[in-house]
Amino acid sequence: MPRPRLLWWPTPAIVLGACLSSGTDPGAAPVPAASAQVAAPARPAAQPVAPDPALLALRAEHPQLLNLDPARDRDGWFTMARLLADKDSLGKHYRRVDYEPPAFSRALVVTVRPGVGQPRYFHYSLGDTAFEVPRHYFHPASTVKLATSVGALWTLGALGLTGDAEIEFSDAEGLQSGQVADMVHEALMHSSNKDYNRLVRIAGFDALNQEYLSPRWGLPEMAIQARYGNRDGPTLRSSPPMRYREGELQGELPAREASGRHASCKGNCATLFELHDVQRRVMLHEELPADQRFPISLTDVERMRATMKITRKRLGRVPDEAFGAPVEVFNNVGRIPRVALLENATLVERGGPRRLFMVASVAFPGALGDTDRLVVPRLRALVRPTLDLALQAAPQGPGLQHDAGPRPGLRVAQHAQDPGRLLVEVEADAEARVWLDRRPFTPALGRAFTITGVAPGEHVIVVELGPVAAPTAYRASLVTVARVATSMQAAAPLR
User: Fold this and answer.
1) From the CB of residue 234, how many other CB atoms can be counted at a distance below 10 Å?
2) CA dihedral 195, 197, 200, 202 (to 10 degrees)
3) Burial level of 266, CB count in 10 A (0-12/13-18/19+)?
4) Tens-binned pLDDT, residue by residue, of the chain (495 aa)
5) Which terminus of the chain is more solvent-facing, meaning fewer CB atoms within 10 Å of its CB: N or C?
6) Nearest 5°: phi and psi at 242?
7) CATH numbers and ranges of domains, the chain
8) Are 93 and 387 in contact, with CB atoms under 8 Å apart?
9) How many angstroms separate the CA atoms of 382 and 101, rounded?
10) pTM of the full predicted structure?
11) For the chain, how big is the Rg over CA atoms in Å?
């Protein structure tokens, strides 16, 4: 089957203004002393503004500064999503419509709304199931093949290649010769296990599991280490030498032998959120900040999207019925009889503005046999109320997006006597709103905000600037709130 191509949503152009510098003309003639004009008296130097006594009093009450770490924020996308996710509304909605999910069901649905220069996401998880690595009645199965495809294209991209590269190598599964794009298509379209195994070897086991599937990309728990197909086949930890050619570029990838071990996963592991987020970065590639896009070519992104548009669909008319309109479905599926059946999908209203991401998994007990006939209805029954909730719910909290706009300075401090009280100061020339996880801070004084009843542990502080209807900046930073505020620190500059 030829690989289809797909055009995606256009990205608005970004225009950068230029700065002009001024200076004196070294060739200008000096002004004669007799005709020189009398210089205007120099303005006195601006005097520092004394801090507001009320602000000083607030700072005195909140002397314990909390650490803000840019590196932690860079690697904290998964944690921020978990802290900002609504984990209650799905369960409440299921009870309201008298639906009880089968045991071991898991669900995540994500609504996409306009943000500051990019999409913003509101996550709804069935309890914490979207962010846990399940140990019973779950396996990511073939849904990891999208991440594997991205990994192979990532390794090629570092060489200046795309999926059009011809690659040749020999492994214990035989001789491979052909375009990598064809292997990606087979892995996604027909769930080819042999092509999946070879894409892992092209990516490189350590590069895939240590660099690509990493906290930097919102994938701290995900691991791809297990071959699919015959369990007695060759390991994925060894990559043979590979010859490549694309246009005038040609060369050889050397043999690679893996040394890394995943701390908590012995095979293939993933959370629902991670499966979703790999798909999100592929589907919304052009809409994301450049540093948040997978470093692969747009041509390869479009090919993967086009393949996901025509892959097999298990949801039937459920998306159309939930949206009340025709829906385009881009998806990856996974199934392991006696373990799990799952669907990872992007749902786009045809001709309309609504977009959702959805990942759902139901147990596939042995009593249901080895076919999908009895388990697919269970999956559809879980998906329908999940979509209904996401389409009907009003967003609560700030939502999550990548940082954008002028970065506001931020200072966070804990109360001396009550560790559950925080003070946040925002440095910005605009209206500001602040949240701790999904709870809003209360404006206290100018751009100082307070909140009470904060539990010890990890939290995310979100700052949004500008008018409510048209915000101009967004920043999210992780903080750890101590159980007891024990030390006194001097005031620190905003970060």
Assistant:
1) 14
2) -60
3) exposed
4) 444 444 344 343 333 333 333 333 333 334 333 334 445 556 666 566 677 899 999 999 999 999 999 999 999 999 999 999 999 999 999 999 999 999 999 999 999 999 999 999 999 999 999 999 988 899 999 999 999 999 999 999 999 999 999 999 999 889 999 999 999 999 999 999 999 999 999 999 999 999 999 999 999 999 999 999 987 788 999 999 999 999 999 999 999 999 999 988 999 999 999 999 999 999 999 999 999 999 999 999 999 999 999 999 999 999 999 999 999 999 999 999 999 999 999 999 999 999 999 999 999 999 989 999 999 999 999 999 999 999 999 999 999 999 999 999 999 999 999 999 999 999 999 999 999 999 999 999 999 999 999 999 999 999 999 999 999 999 999 999 998 865 544 455 677
5) N
6) -130, 125
7) 53-76+402-481 (2.60.40), 78-159+182-234+257-392 (3.40.710.10)
8) no
9) 6
10) 0.89
11) 27
What HEC string does the chain produce? CCCCCCCCCCCCCCCCCCCCCCCCCCCCCCCCHHHCCCCCCCCCCCCCCCCCHHHHHHHHHCCEECCCCHHHHHCCHHHHHHHHCECCHHHHHHHHCCCCCCCCCEEEEEEEEECCCCEEEEEEECCCCCCCCCCCCCCCHHHHHHHHHHHHHHHHHCCCCCCCCEEEEEECCEEEEEEHHHHHHHHHHCCCHHHHHHHHHHHCHHHHHHHHCCHHHCCCCCECCCCCCCCCCCCCCEECCEEEEECCEEEEECCEECCCCCCCCCCCECCHHHHHHHHHHHHCHHHCCHHHCCCCCHHHHHHHHHHHHHCCCCCCCHHHHHHCCCEEEEEEEEEECCCEEEEEEEEEECCCCCEEEEEEEEECCHHHCCCCCCCHHHHHHHHHHHHHHHHHCCCCCCCECCCECCCCEEEEEECCCCCCCEEEEEECCCCEEEEECCEECEEEECCEEEECCCCCEEEEEEEEECCCCCCCEEEEEEEEECCCCCCCCCCCCCC
